[in-house]
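Handout, section B. The chain below has 242 residues.
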Amino acid sequence: MAVGRRKPGAADSLAEQIVPALAVAGDTDQRPLQLARDLSSRPQPAINVPFDLRSTMTPTSGDAALVARPSFGSVTHQRYRSRLRTRRSVYFGCMRLDYEVVINKPIEDVWDYTNDRDNLELWLNDFVRYEQVTGDSAAPKVGDTCNMTYSQGKGEFTMLEEIVDLEKPRRLKMFMSCNMFDMEIVNTFEAIDEGKTRLFAGANFVRLGLMMKVVFLFSSEKKQLAEHKRQIDKLKELIEAS
């Protein structure tokens, strides 16, 4: 492998891009800046590394990659890994949120309550209303669509929801789309004991528009998952109290 020396100022340019990237995660550690400057004083492998946001999303080989990697196990490292997972998800246009919970109710009761649209406003964040577009809400089937409206700041936005798989009372898969993002919702129900049901709730963002990519860059996947769990735990509480 060829060996050479970085051009003057190259390390400072690299650090100027790395440090703000870490700062997005609430990390103000200046050690990456000093490390970048130290590396500029010794010969480095002559590798072509694009030192931009994408390079922090896809780890590279060589000493240069170490600049953006805090010490393993440190708080800084944990924040970095969380941000790295989020940036990969955002860059490739996907983020997956999965959660499983056991509800102390029979599977039929869990299915009925979860899929009753009149209950959505009780546990689903920012839900405002729904409007059936095709099919009958009282007898849902694959291919049925409806408009789901959510609040957004002082306004609202609407997603078109389509049922793509339905196996009552065990599985429901829906595809939701709007101009900002597309996502798949998969809920599976399993009777594990008399009067107990395991609910698996999955939300998979399969496409993110530019605005949502920017939003998710400032909100870690860990935070999104925590909010997803909070909603499903609320659903469990409501079902068990019904």
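Note. The longest strand covers residues 155-167. Compare this with the example in section A.
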